[in-house]
Amino acid sequence: MKPNVPWWQRGSIRISIVLVLLILVGGAGVGIYYTQAPPEQPIPFPHNFHVGIGAECMYCHTGAATGPSAGLPTTNKCWGCHQQLEPRNENLKLVASFAENEESIPWVPVALQPDFVKFNHQPHITAGVSCETCHGDVASMTVAEPQPRHNMGWCLDCHQKMSTPEDFVRLSDCATCHY
Amino acid sequence: MAELLKEQEETQKWGMVIDMDICSGCQACVTACSMENNVPFVGEDEMAYGRGLQWMRIRRYWEGEYPEVTPTHQPMLCQQCGSAPCEPVCPTFASVHSQEEQINVQVYNRCIGTRYCANNCPFSARVFNWFDYETPAPMNSYLNPDVSVRRRGIMEKCTFCVQRIVHGRQQAAAEGREVEDGDIVPACAQACPTDAIVFGDLSDPESKVSKMSRSDRAFKELEELGTQPKVIYLKGGKSYGG
Questions:
Q1: Is residue A47 part of a domain?
Q2: Rounded Cα gap, residues A1 and B6, in angstroms
Q3: In B, which residues are within 8 Å of A178 by CB distance?
Q4: Is residue A77 assigned to a domain?
Q5: Cβ contact (<8 Å) for A175 and B162?
């Protein structure tokens, strides 16, 4: 004889529902964690220290003022200063070994746009937007951290605030960023 | 109606003039367009099935009645209509009019591939990605980083090389000047060996393209449909040199 309990009170069904929910919530959690966590870098570059001793962003990320991509520094850029310093710790020895072998440091880019978004640093720098506006307070970070919620609404919000209504026609045009 | 036409005159922006009297039909524009815009070459078989991917094509047609027929040709591309038939039919607003550039832009992310726009285009200027075409190495290095690589299942078409328009404007702004006539040259106009294709700002009456569009030989393709094309063809009565 079948037990006279409704289906939602059966143990097996309840356990499987809980398991499915756990997998979904866990998967979402892991997914969010991996997209928001800073990627592992070959050398955990201390931005805060370098900004603290007075290095400008554009000393290393040279392309920002002139082109679409700000760029990541070459080994020679690091070595230009660091060859004059005693390698005090493991990371600095790593820089020295990259320079001796004439290899480029395989930096992992953090601030990435999707393929269909064509972002250009140069007009933003010309308009006087500071680096921190989009990249966060890098002066207090060691490795660069990805900034959350860099989506189209966020771009458009800023374009609207920073421009006149006439300019916003151009700055909200699809073809300005997508082609 | 006059007011309406006047308003459209005011909003006109980018335009193109194609001189069919000096066009030799060499297809350099077609090749340059495909290379600039990451349009894959699909091969003979797919072309025969009507699945060709070309943003620009040389249309061949016959003139005259038999037996006095002559083959002739016309470069055909998206006419960037001021009142475009492709735009109102898109259910996802993927085909939209750019207020700033006054061209029709295709937003690839929104497109779900209903192909309604292509069916409504009187110029057959839109092409559909039926398949993903792999670009074999080392040809993948030829892909233009300024243009999205489209995947299958979406509609695409000539953009008047909007990446070059944006770049030209940013370049001019960086140099602290206005965009000048001739700053912005789309790939087809750049490649044309006879300079039959001229691109420029139609809003500026002094630009080269505006002057050429006022020529006696000027006509617009299917003008009677009222789509207000931004591409103007020049063709005379074959009485060359008077």
A1: no
A2: 85
A3: 105, 107-109, 148
A4: yes
A5: yes
The whole-angstrom separation of Cα B145 and Cα A21 is 42
> Which of A122, A123, A169 lies closest to B99 in CB terms?
A169
The strand pairing partners of B41, in sequence order, are none
Between CA A175 and CA B23 the distance in angstroms is 30
Is the Cα dihedral B169, B172, B176, B181 positive or negative? negative
Domain count, chain A: 2
Domain map of chain B by residue range? 11-234
Closest Cα to residue B101, out of B80, B76, B118, B122?
Answer: B80
Of chain B, the percentage scoring pLDDT greater than 70 comes to: 93
Would you say B131 and B151 are in contact if contact means Cβ atoms under 8 Å apart? no
Q: Which residue has the tokens 């922006």?
A: B13
Fold annotation for B11-234: Alpha-Beta Plaits (3.30.70)
Which chain B residue is nearest to residue A173, measuring alpha carbons? B98
Task: Measure in Å the smallest separation between the Cα of B238 and chain A Cα atoms.
Answer: 39
The reply to whether A8 touches chain B by the CB within 8 Å rule is no
Q: What is the Cα–Cα distance from A62 to A66, expressed in whole angstroms? A: 8
Q: CB A178 to CB B101 under 8 A?
A: no
Whether A117 is in a domain gets the answer no
Amino acid identity for residue A130 in this structure:
S
Question: What mean pLDDT value characterizes chain B?
Answer: 88
**E strand or H helix that includes residue A159:** helix A152-162
Residues 77-106 of B with CB under 8 A from A: 96, 98-101, 103, 105
pLDDT in tens, A96-154: 888 888 888 889 888 888 888 999 999 899 888 998 898 988 888 888 888 888 889 99
Q: Report the range of poorest mean pLDDT among B6-15, B101-110, B133-142, B204-213.
A: B6-15
DSSP element (H, E) containing B7: helix B2-11
Contact A116 B162 (CB under 8 A): no
- Asked if the structure places residue A28 within a domain, the reply is yes
Its domain, for residue A99, covers: 73-106
In the stretch 121-150 of chain A, residues with CB closer than 8 A to chain B read 122-123, 126
CB proximity list for B8: less than 8 A, separation 6 or greater = B82, B83, B228
